[in-house]
Amino acid sequence: MANMLETGAVQLAAKRDAHAASEYGYQRGSGTIYAIDATLGSTETEVDDVDKGFRVKTKALDLLMSLANFPEALELPKAGDKITTGTRTFRVRNLSGSGEWKYSDGFNKSIRIHIQETT
Fold first, then answer.
1. Half-sphere exposure (CA, 13 Å, Cβ side) for 17?
2. What's the rounded Cα separation, in Å, for the pair 104 and 119?
3. Sequence spans of domains, the chain
4. How high is the pLDDT of residue 10?
5. Taking the model in full, what pTM does it have?
6. Which residues contact 4 (CB under 8 A, 6 or more apart)?
7. 66, burial (CB in 10 Å: exposed 0-12, middle 13-18, buried 19+)
8. CA-CA distance, 82 to 113, in Å (whole number)?
9. Cα–Cα 20 to 30 A to 77, which of 5, 32, 38, 60?
10. Of 26, 27, 37, which is closest to residue 69 (Cα–Cα)?
11. CB distance 64 to 38 below 8 Å
12. In whole numbers, what is the pLDDT of the chain averaged over residues?
């Protein structure tokens, strides 16, 4: 019997890709530009500075997409990868030492790629 939560995660990712995603160009170095479907989002992080007694909040841009739709030839996102759509250009970045991407669900079906707009 299939895990109902995992089945639901797959179905929700498919709905997101079909109804909320836009097309982006994904490129590593000067290599091939791959077409990917992703949804622009954000991640908020908080860091306490105990020594100075305050909390720093940041909001970073992300692209949310199904892992199955990420170009197989590239394996996983890496810092510096270029992402474009229309007139906007982004670069994959390491978010506060937590990596360039993370799984976005409990079943590793979707990923959240941390990006920074460069134009």
1. 17
2. 26
3. 4-117
4. 87
5. 0.85
6. none
7. buried
8. 12
9. 5
10. 37
11. yes
12. 91
Q: Which of 48, 32, 116 is nearest to 80 (CA)?
A: 116
Residues 65 and 17: beta-carbon distance below 8 Å: yes
**What mean pLDDT is predicted for residues 51-63?**
86
DSSP 58-110: EEEEEEEEEGGGS-GGG-S--TT-EEEETTEEEEE---TTS-SEEESSTTS-E
Tens of pLDDT, residue by residue over 72-107, are 999 999 999 999 999 999 999 998 788 999 999 999
Q: How far apart are CA 32 and CA 63, in angstroms?
A: 19
The span from the CA of 49 to the CA of 55, in Å, is 6
